[in-house]
Amino acid sequence: QVQPVESGGDSVQAGGSLRLSCRLSTYISTKFCLGWFRQAPGKEREEIAVMDADTTNYGDSAKGRFVIFRDYHKEALLLQMNKLKPEDTGMYYCAASRDYCWRRQFDYWGQGTQVTVLG
Fold first, then answer.
1. What is the arrangement of strands in the sheet containing 76-81, beginning at the earlier edge strand?
2. Residue 27 neighbours by CB distance under 10 Å
3. Strands 11-13 and 113-118
4. Backbone dihedral angles phi then psi of residue 24, each to the nearest 5 degrees
5. Contact predicate 38/110, CB 8 Å
6. Pairing relation of β-strands 56-58 and 5-7?
7. How far apart are CA 97 and CA 33, in angstroms?
8. Would you write out the chain's pLDDT as a tens digit for each of its 119 residues?
9. Residue 90 in contact with residue 39, Cβ under 8 Å?
10. Within 10 A of 11 (CB to CB), how many other CB atoms are there?
11. 3-class state of residue 50 by DSSP
């Protein structure tokens, strides 16, 4: 059983940076998909970034500002967020799959970490 646990959320001024971390309770093969998602109040969940061994994809709101990567020593998925905007505010969730990213089927979800961007 995989249990993602997110951390790193905070309140930050617009233009600032944050790094989110997602610790995985067990090893996930690099061929399988890991991702970050965001849900703002009153809005649907939005895909921020996903990655597996073959691909890395960013949602339109993240392109050019966010970077998703893995820390294999710590079994963690990270999201470096730069040039933050107030519209980046929301709960950020980490998700893990036992399948490839192109299927977009995530089996395990964390509890989320809150990001608030003040502008």
1. 5-7, 18-23, 76-81, 66-71
2. 9
3. parallel
4. -105, 135
5. no
6. unpaired
7. 5
8. 789 999 999 999 999 999 999 999 888 888 899 999 999 989 999 999 999 999 999 999 999 999 999 998 888 999 999 999 999 999 999 999 999 999 999 999 999 999 999 98
9. yes
10. 12
11. strand
Please count the residues of the chain.
119
Measuring CA to CA, which residue among 23, 34, 5 is closest to residue 112? 5
**What tokens appear for 94 in the block?**
């980490």
Distance CA 111, CA 29 (A): 22
Q: Which pair of structure tokens corresponds to residue 87?
A: 């519209």
Residue with tokens 């597996």: 52
